[in-house]
C-alpha cells in the first residue's frame, strides 16, 4: 500500500471543508485496498487516468490522492456548476467545468493546471461506463490531448467497488456494511514517441488507446478477471455514451 504522504501545499478553505466532511464519511462506509499508490508523483504536473463506475468515484479518487500528498483537480460536467453556491465551492476547490458540446475551454484550463504542476484527474471514458458488466468502455481523447500537449506523465488507475456503495445512476447509496474500494495504480503510460510527432487525430487516438489499454489491464487485476478483448462501444450498441442508458433523456442531462 505504501506510506501515506503529507500534503505538499496549502489546502485552501474549500478542500479543508470537503475533507472534514467527506473523509470521515468514506471511512465509515468503505474500506480500501490501494496497490501501487506510491507511484502517484509526489510533485509536478500529471494526469491520473481512471475508469468510471459510479458518481461517487471523484470522492474515492480524492481519498487516495489526498492520502498520498496531492490535491486533485477534476474535469467535471458543467451542469454541476449551474448552482451559484455549488459553482463557488467547486471553483474554490479548483475543479474544471466541462461543457461536452464545447470542451476546448476545459482542456485549455486542464493544460494550464498541469503546466503549473497540478494533478488533474480524468475519467477517460468521459462518463460512467455503459458496459453491461462494468468493464471500461471506449475512451475519449481528452486525457491524451492534455498529455501530448504538456508532456506530463499519465498515471493509469484501475478501480472497482465504488458501484457497490452507489450503483451507477442511482441516487440511493447502499449503506449496508462497509464496501471495499480497490484501486491499482500503474506505471506511467509511455507516450514519448507520440509527443514528438504531429498530433494528428490518428496519433491522439493511438495515445488514447494506450491509456485505455493500461487502465483495462489494471481493472482486470483488481477484479481478478480477464478483461474483454474489445472495449464496449456505445455508438455501436446504439446508445449514448453519456447519461443513464436506461432512462429517457431530458435536455441538458449528462454523466
From TrEMBL:
InterPro entries: Plipid/glycerol_acylTrfase (IPR002123). GO terms for molecular function: acyltransferase activity. Keywords: Acyltransferase, Transferase. Residues 225-236 have a biased composition (Basic and acidic residues). Residues 225-255 are annotated as: Disordered. Residues 46-162 form the Phospholipid/glycerol acyltransferase domain. It holds the Pfam family Acyltransferase. SUPFAM superfamilies: Glycerol-3-phosphate (1)-acyltransferase (SSF69593). PANTHER family: 1-ACYL-SN-GLYCEROL-3-PHOSPHATE ACYLTRANSFERASE, POSSIBLE ACYLTRANSFERASE. This is Lysophospholipid acyltransferase family protein.
Amino acid at each position: 500500500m505504501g506510506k501515506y504522504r503529507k500534503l505538499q501545499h496549502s489546502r485552501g478553505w474549500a478542500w479543508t471543508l470537503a475533507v472534514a466532511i467527506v473523509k470521515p464519511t468514506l471511512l465509515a462506509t468503505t474500506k480500501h485496498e490501494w496497490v501501487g499508490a506510491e507511484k502517484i508523483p509526489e510533485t509536478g504536473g500529471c494526469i491520473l487516468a481512471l475508469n468510471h463506475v459510479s458518481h461517487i468515484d471523484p470522492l474515492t479518487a480524492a481519498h487516495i490522492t489526498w492520502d498520498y500528498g496531492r490535491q486533485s483537480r477534476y474535469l467535471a460536467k458543467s451542469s454541476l456548476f449551474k448552482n451559484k453556491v455549488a459553482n463557488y465551492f467547486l471553483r474554490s476547490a479548483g475543479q474544471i467545468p466541462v461543457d461536452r458540446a464545447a470542451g476546448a475551454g476545459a482542456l485549455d484550463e486542464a493544460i494550464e493546471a498541469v503546466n503549473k504542476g497540478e494533478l488533474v484527474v480524468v475519467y477517460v471514458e468521459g462518463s460512467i461506463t455503459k458496459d453491461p458488466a462494468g468493464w471500461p468502455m471506449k475512451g475519449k481523447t481528452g486525457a491524451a490531448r492534455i498529455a501530448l500537449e504538456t508532456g506530463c506523465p499519465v498515471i493509469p488507475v484501475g478501480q472497482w467497488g465504488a458501484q457497490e456503495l452507489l450503483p451507477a445512476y442511482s441516487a440511493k447509496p447502499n449503506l449496508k456494511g462497509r464496501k471495499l474500494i480497490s484501486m491499482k495504480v500503474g506505471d506511467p503510460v509511455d507516450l514519448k514517441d507520440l509527443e514528438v510527432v504531429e498530433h494528428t487525430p490518428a496519433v491522439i487516438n493511438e495515445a488514447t488507446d494506450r491509456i485505455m489499454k493500461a487502465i483495462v489491464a489494471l481493472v482486470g487485476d483488481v477484479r481478478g478477471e480477464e478483461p474483454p478483448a474489445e472495449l464496449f462501444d456505445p455508438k455501436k450498441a446504439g446508445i449514448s455514451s453519456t447519461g443513464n442508458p436506461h432512462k429517457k433523456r431530458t435536455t441538458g442531462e449528462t454523466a
